[in-house]
Amino acid sequence: MNKKLLRIVEGQGEREAGPVAEEKLLAGKPQQLTEHFFTNAKENFFCGVWSSDAGKWKLSYSEDEFCYIIDGEAIITDADGHSERVVMGDAFCIPAGFEGSWETVGSVKKFYAIYEE
After folding, report:
1. For the chain, what is the domain count?
2. Is residue 72 part of a domain?
3. What number of other Cβ atoms are within 10 A of residue 96's Cβ?
């Protein structure tokens, strides 16, 4: 196992692209790109860069996620209808158990770090 500092440099991760799953879609036909950089030895912590174009879909979190918006904006709405707009420079956490929706306005890109029990 690598025990050295790992720099997150776009274009050097493991890339996966595709649409948001049809059963989650609420609006549009958003395409996502995930560039995965790290998985720990227990396979319960992950980090990388994720991006999407315009669209809206349902969220149901079993994991805790830290996000930092690199570019663009999104609207995150919880199950009670409370919405938060997140834009470039915003950092936030989405806790396990969160239910709601994610709406990408135009396009968005974020750093993510995910922990799952």
Report:
1. 1
2. yes
3. 13
Task: Classify residue 99: in a domain, yes or no.
Answer: yes
Token digits of residue 28 = 């549009």
Range of the domain at 24: 15-115
Environment class of residue 108 by beta-carbon count within 10 Å: exposed (0-12), middle (13-18) or buried (19+)? buried
First to last CA, the chain: 21
Residue 74 lies in a domain: yes
Nearest-angstrom CA–CA distance, 5 and 71 = 25
CB atoms within 10 A of CB 29: 11
pLDDT in tens, 38-90: 999 999 999 999 999 999 999 999 999 999 999 999 999 999 999 999 999 99
pLDDT band at 2; cut points 50, 70, 90:
low
**For residue 61, what is the domain's CATH number?**
2.60.120.10
Q: What is the Cα 82 distance to its own chain's centre?
A: 19
